[in-house]
Amino acid sequence: MSEDNKNLEFKRHTLAHLLAAAVLVDYPHANLTLGPAIDNGFYYDIDFSAGDTPGDDDLKKIQKHMKKMLGQWTSFEHEEVSADQAKEIFKDNPFKLELIEEITEKGEAITLYTAGAGTKAEFTDLCRGGHSDNPAEEIAADAFKLDKIAGAYWRGDEKNPMITRIYGLAFDTKEELEAYEKQREEARARDHRKLGKELGLFTFSDTVGKGLPLYTPKGSTIRRELERFIVDEEIKRGYLHVYTPDIAKLDLYEKSGHYPHYKDSMYAPIDVDDEKFMLRPMTCPHHFELYSSEPHSYKELPMRIGELAKLYRYEQSGELTGLIRVRSFCLADAHIICANEEQAISEVGEALDLIEYVASVFGLEMGKDYHYRLSLGDRNDSEKYYKNDEAWDKGEALLRELLQNRDCEFVEAEGEGAFYGPKVDVQMVNVNGKEDTAFTVQYDFCMPDRFDLTYIDSDGQEKRALVVHRSSIGAIERIMGFLIERFGGNFPLWLSPTQVAVIAVADAHKEYAAKVYEELKAVGIRTEYDDSKDSMGKKIRNAKKNKLPYFVVIGDKEVAEKTVTVESRDGESKEMTLNSFANHLLTEIDNKDIK
Amino acid sequence: MSEDNKNLEFKRHTLAHLLAAAVLVDYPHANLTLGPAIDNGFYYDIDFSAGDTPGDDDLKKIQKHMKKMLGQWTSFEHEEVSADQAKEIFKDNPFKLELIEEITEKGEAITLYTAGAGTKAEFTDLCRGGHSDNPAEEIAADAFKLDKIAGAYWRGDEKNPMITRIYGLAFDTKEELEAYEKQREEARARDHRKLGKELGLFTFSDTVGKGLPLYTPKGSTIRRELERFIVDEEIKRGYLHVYTPDIAKLDLYEKSGHYPHYKDSMYAPIDVDDEKFMLRPMTCPHHFELYSSEPHSYKELPMRIGELAKLYRYEQSGELTGLIRVRSFCLADAHIICANEEQAISEVGEALDLIEYVASVFGLEMGKDYHYRLSLGDRNDSEKYYKNDEAWDKGEALLRELLQNRDCEFVEAEGEGAFYGPKVDVQMVNVNGKEDTAFTVQYDFCMPDRFDLTYIDSDGQEKRALVVHRSSIGAIERIMGFLIERFGGNFPLWLSPTQVAVIAVADAHKEYAAKVYEELKAVGIRTEYDDSKDSMGKKIRNAKKNKLPYFVVIGDKEVAEKTVTVESRDGESKEMTLNSFANHLLTEIDNKDIK
Q: Which of B213, B289, B305 is nearest residue A205 as measured by Cβ atoms?
């Protein structure tokens, strides 16, 4: 940890003490427990069960006490005491007594820390240390604030009583505090669960089940556009799109070897007659069965078998998060059957080309929004990785060479490969700045053995194939959640559920407005005509609230001149003929412009 | 039964006796059992376990005996005998003894029938009667033939021994026999399972499971075109297409009331944590949950919620038939939430408009290829039907009135309604001439109660909605199977997996041929360029075998004149510029022409 970081952590820890001291002013009955520094600030867990418990409204008052006391905290001293002394001091606080007992059992020293000794603000707490030496001088009073109150189990164990946790934010400067709050505000406003609700894109039902989103008509429009975009783009690039069943016999996953490895992620079997059926957790064995249903020539390879495949993977209910972590998802999946290593590596390269193209359509930049990770195997772990050292060596070297020769950023990660071979992970940064593996391109020399995937080579011999597993866009659910946050609901025109709203200023303009609506619809623009009795102002506010890319207002001038006045989401306004507006829209949709 | 039909049945029954008599000539060890008349002919079940069993190759020989003996069968006489007499006659035949026992138990008379009495061809059998009086005169020797040999359990019970069944075809005239055989031949050639294999459209895998088709790239193209066609057409007609989960908690189907009613068609539950999840057998409750996720105004109704919904219904493995009877299928489903009866009936009418439009796109004619059936409830059966006599009366009357006022053919069927209301079934005739319910439009006053489906009316009051359940195209699997048979693999251009093949006459023409291929592909035509070393003749035969709508042959003339010579599947040939060919194709695709 750098000196700067350590100083900041000491400040935050000091502020936890200050919070405790300030709480005792109005809540002398409170039992203090523990108060550490955390990311972005500090908290203190306090038991208020003997009297009043503060609420969010009381935070200002407590914060005021903190600021007042801070000026008197010019020192932070400590002394070592015996267990008996400590127990006497905290005799009315069962939480501290439990802590003293623990420290004693471990044979560690018991220390008491006192801030502001000799002042009205003097405060002593049981503590291991790590504070600012002179809080009054070191801590800026405008660089911290209390944030929120939450419940917490004592020591995080749900068998223990629930006590109260008060959170504070703290930085070195006021500017840093404000910047953090602003960034958090923006991330919250862009949270896909919040926006999904506000814009009416998807919902959940307790009766249907957790982690199983129901897409509204609006959200379904986005999903359908995404699905058609990726299927059409893949077909253009020579993919053969197929449909295979979402359930299959357990035998299939035993054959692929997924079953023992993957059991915990799979749902329980469904008994049908004498057989067991599984919800599929992946597509590979389905595509391999399809490939193997007839013999193939080297001329057919590489064969790029693609599918929008519904998959089912078990997630604990606590892990489920909007569209990002679900129990059933639709993966833009593909398996490319290749004749040899060179072909497979070339196909990995083409898959990365596709990924970079798709990312560019969403406005994502290599290096900034995503980068690659070369995930390697571990020759010493033959439980986790298919045993074939030579194939691993060769595959890893070829993938590394491929990435080095591309204009791309990548890191390497040991022991992150798939069980059947090394892979290139697409690492994406979400709206909260966290990095995650969005999807992968995998190089597989194991499954072709298990499924006996072969082809007839030019010499007439039957040979073993290689497989590249890949996605291009990941799971539709996940990319939707990601894009909702990325665009903050301001979708590009081609993805917008409603593309244009038509608003008439008064009754006299309704006839022409209806004509505009019909003509835009006729050329395939998703158009709404708001003919409710609401005022024009309210209609415009509605269009803005729903983040419509465009709305047109039809008044006297537009009727007289047979034009439309186009208002865009970003505040631009322009009068044009209906034809040129329609053509402008169609071009923007066709180009998939991001504005 | 008409006199004619009865005569034909007597002839067929007589021929079963004749078959038995002829079998005994070469197989005197055979134990005869039972031999009835059936649709299209007759059969006789015979136990050959005491010696040789005839195979298909022996049918000709047996048939020859039949024809020879027929001339001597100028009479068919019967006499009643006692059980003891009968048992003595059939003392070596355990099957006949079992029959005699049964007849005796029922207190019926035991009769023996003798044909050709006093001739070399005399033959006596235990029988209840129903024969031609003078077979030699009445039965045309060229109007029947033996058809095939199959195994059959004695009395159809799989616990009994397997015996041999010999089938024969029989009609009044040679012409009728030939017409039947020709029609059967054509139906077999068009069987979607056979064509699906020949054209490489779909396959099954024992490891994946029975009744779960895997679509090849070619079959997937047809499916994707069908799916996009119906989704786009529905959206044009104001449907709101959605995506809802394919699994849901058991609670949902208990809430809908489907669970006890529908249990036998559903797969066993999947335990997830403490909950039970089901593969969904229908979409309705999913759409109702989506509708109920927020309040709705009367202005939003009728709300047409559509989905390409994957459904799972249990079928016994013996019932599974290609794409027609499967265990998982994708239904073009919709639920239209309506404000009142009038709106619901109007929506049923619009659903029928859509169905008739879609049928016309496939070249299906009302009255010839399909008709409607008004399926009614039964006021006395409150177990099978939701109890609400008034709503049934009103719904049935409104549907009847609607159908009477349309230009359509319909019949009525008592006791065929859904449990929640009356419905209009779309009855379709398949390639074998059999009629089946393809899909339905249902009028539902029950589910809205169970799911508390409401809307806020113009008077501000919350009111109960009505629902129309409907499909437009049925299950994608089923319509695909149907269309494969309907078109005999000669799909209209828009559905053809490959639309055009480009064939160069010689190496000198390859450069221009490749250009033609690239340009057709660039405008979105599914084009193949056959640059294999095969002869031109073989390439053309391949294109024809795969039933490609068009292929173009590129030779000296085409290269010199920058044209293409277009050969169509139906034998037409025409030279034209590449541009005009491409435009011709795009127009034919856009119009969804059937040629």
A: B289
